[in-house]
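Figure-free illustration: sequence to structure, shown twice.
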Amino acid sequence: MSENVSKLKNIMKEISGYAMLMMGAVIAAFSIEEFLVPCTILDGGIVGISIMINNLSGIHLGILTLALNIPFLLVGMRKLGAKFIVKSAVAMVTFSSFLEIFAPIVDVTHEYLLAVCFGGVFLGVGVGFVIRAGGCLDGTETVAIFLNKKFNLPVGQTVLFINVVIYMVASFLFGFDRAMYSLLTYFITSKVIDFVETGVEQAKAAMIITDEGQMIADEIYKKMGRTVTILEGEGLISGKKVVLYCVLNRFEIYELKRLINEVDASAFITISDVSEIIGNHIKKKADVV
C-alpha cells in the first residue's frame, strides 16, 4: 500500500512540475508579446535574436524561437540528460505556441518604462517557474550548462556574455536607447528569477558563537521549531566556544535575535544568504510542542 502511495505522490509531483513548467512558459510568452515586442525591447539569448530577425524579416516570432532552439536541444540531448531536454522541449513548444496566440491581442502598453518594468517582472516570473520545474526556455542556457559541465565555465557569466553581444548588435540595428532598455529589462528579469527560484521565504543561515550553546539550541528548537547543528570552536583569545549553525527564513531573523539576546547577550551572530537547501533537516512548525 505504501509503495502505491509513494508512486502516486511521484506521479502527482511530475504532473505539478509540468503544470508549473507550462504556466511559466505561458507567462513568459505573454510578457514578450504584450510588453517587450511592441516597444522593440529585446530579451536575451535566442528570443532576443528571434525578435531582431522578426523585426527585419517579418517571420513569425513563435516560429523563429522554436526553429532556432531546436539545434541547441539536439546538441544538449546527449550531454544534459533526457529529463532536462524533455522538459525544456515542452517549455519551448508551449512558449512558441503562446507567442503566436498572444500576437494578435492588443498590446498592453507602448510606454517604454512600463514595458521594461512590468515586462521584466512577468518574464522573470515565467522563466523562474520554468527553471524551478527543471527546464529552460532558451537554447543559450543549454549551451551555458553544457560549457559549465565540460569546461567549468560559470553558467551565469556565459549567458551574460552572450546577451551583451546580442544587445551590442541590437544597438546598431535599433539604436542605443533600445539596447539600454533591453539591458535594464534583463537585470530586472534576473532579479525576479532569483526571487522566484528561492521563494518568498528565502533561506538564511545563522552562525552563533556562544558560551550557552545547549541552552540556546534548546530554546531555538522549542520556540522556533528549528533544529540546530552544534559544533566545537576555539577563539584565539576567548578559548573554547560552542558554535551553532541554524537555517531559517528571513521572517524569523528578528525572533532569533530576540531569543539569543535573552539567553546570552554577549553571543556573536552572523547571518548570511543560502542559495539552495537540499535535504529535509528543518523541523516543521507543526511538530513544535
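We now fold a second protein in the same way, so the two outputs can be compared directly.
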Amino acid sequence: MKVTVLIENTGEAPLVAEHGLSFYITFEGKNYLLDAGQSGAFMDNAKLLGVDLDMADKTILSHGHYDHADGFVRYLEQYPERKIYAQPGIFESYYSGSKDKMHYIGLHESLLREKEKFIMAEKYMKLNENVYLIADKGSITPGKKLYRKTDDGYVHDDFYHEQSLVFDTEKGLVIFNSCSHTGLVPIVENIEQIFHKPVYAYLGGLHMKSVKHGVEGTDFSNEELEKIADFALSHIQYVYTGHCTGSVAMNILKSFMLDRLLLIYTGCTIEL
C-alpha cells in the first residue's frame, strides 16, 4: 500500500498547504481518493507529486465538514461522471463556535445542490475486495463546540456522518479516519469487533487541537492523552496523524509513543 498526502495543514512550497486533508491511496491495483481539502488545491499538488487523479477508482468523503469536502467542487467540475461515497448525514447543517459566534462548517452550497453525485454508504459497506467503509458509532461530546442546526436550534453534533475507510492487509488492518471526532479508542474498538483482526496502522487527525485567545492548546489532560497513547500502543502498530490533532497534543502523545507516532504533512508518502 502506498499513501500520498495530497493536502494537509502543513507543507512546503511549491505544494499548497491548507487547513484540510486529502489522501490518495494505492492498494492491490486500485486507487482511492479520500477527502479533498477545502479549496481544490489538492489537485494542483497531485500533479506536482506525480499522482494521476484520472486513475482514481473510488472517491470517498469522510464526513460533512468543508475542510474535507469543498475541494470536491473543483474535482467534480473536472470529473462530472464520478460519484463520492459518504454517509447520509453529510447534508445536514454543521456549525462550530459558541453563543453568537457560530459559523457554518458544512458542505459548500454547490455540493448540497448535487446530491446525486453522492452514493450513500451503509454503516458497513464493502467497496472492493479487502476494502470497507465503516460508519462511526457516533457520540456527543459537548466540549468540542461542534453542532448540527435543526428546526429547534443548535444541537451537539453526534458525528453519525463520519466514517472510516478500512483496508484489510497482510500486515493487519489499516484505518483511515480523517478527524476521529468520536475518538481514536471507540473507533478502533468498533472496527476490531467487526473484523477480529489486529490494527497495523491508523491514519488521520485526532481532533485534539484547541485555540484560546489566539494560543494553541488542547482540551485533553496529560492523563487523558496518556490513556489514549497506552491504548494505541497496545492496539495499533503505527499512528500517522496531523491536521486537527494540533502540535501541543501531538508532542505529548509523541512523548509516550515515540517512533510509533508519526507526523503527516502535505506531500509526504507512506509505504505500508
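Summary for the second example: The chain has a mean pLDDT of 94.
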